[in-house]
Amino acid sequence: MGPKSIAIIMDGNGRWAKSKGLARSAGHVKGAKNIETIARAAKAMGVKYLTIYAFSTENWSRPDDEVAKLMELLEEYITKAIKNAEKNKMQIRIIGDRSKLSDGLNARIAEAEKITSVYDEVYLQVAFNYGSRDEIVRMTKKIASDVSDGKLSTDDITEETVSNYLDTAGIPDPDLLIRTSGEQRISNYLLWQLAYSEFYFTKVPWPDFSPKNLEEAIEEYNNRNRRYGGV
Ligand code: FPP
Nearest to residue 59, comparing CAs of 187, 168, 174, 182? Predict the structure, then answer.
């Protein structure tokens, strides 16, 4: 069976732009546009859950104008997703620490999540101000607080409890992780959730990553699964 849950590290926007003599922001614009293309293709290929890395907790250290551009692109993306909700039948969730995002952006996010919550053909998780270690710290605090409030007993904490306290609660762990643009690192992404995932690396930078490239990744996953029996 093909992968039902795919995570993507969308890397290489900057290098793509540089190779074309463009500003880094042009790479992010092209990269943001590509999300729609790939989400649609993934849905057509039977993928039910797509979890994409759009802004990491480390990305705040980039130049101010680049951070501002990424915030702007998220807002634009969410606005577009609200407009296309009915057509796409896609549920959207933002994962990561929202407390550092502006009130305006948070309001937009809440609106998109509410409007799309009725759709279940495909689920898109956008990781924004996301870091896996940060998520694990926040999860630990929530569990500690529920234990101290008497809502949860220490003896009842299981792996499932941990999964349910993470931002990805309810989302099946990725079957496949794809990272574009040549780096072969996990970069603080979904450390708990990727425990049993297959990893696929490609040199293609994210703005050029096409439905054909996605199909190749899925084919490779299917071949590995046939060889090893899918365990
Ligand atoms: C990596 O490129 C890309 C990111 C910082 C994350 C992905 C962002 C997008 C696809 C655009 C924004 C979309 C939304 C919805 C906010 P890089 O700049 O690290 O590339 P480089 O390694 O070549 O410099």
Answer: 187
> Which alpha helices (H) appear in 84-183, and where do they start and end?
85-88, 103-116, 132-148, 159-165
Distance between CA atoms of 2 and 5, rounded to whole angstroms?
A: 9
How many Å lie between the centroid of ligand 1 and the Cα of residue 191?
20
**Ligand 1 center to 25 CA (angstroms):** 9
| d(CA 149, ligand 1 centre) in Å | 40
**Higher pLDDT among residues 227 and 163, named by residue:** 163
Give the tens place of pLDDT for each residue, 121-149.
999 999 999 999 999 999 999 999 999 99
Q: What CA–CA distances, in Å, run from 199 to 89, 184, 193, 209? A: 28, 9, 13, 16
Q: Is the CB of 31 under 6 A from ligand 1?
A: yes
Strand positions, DSSP E, 157-219: 176-179, 198-201
Q: Does the beta carbon of 96 sit less than 6 angstroms from any atom of ligand 1? A: no
Is residue 90 within 8 Å of residue 47, measured between CB atoms?
Answer: no
Ligand 1 nearest atom to the CA of residue 10, by list position? 7
Answering whether pTM is above 0.90, one says yes
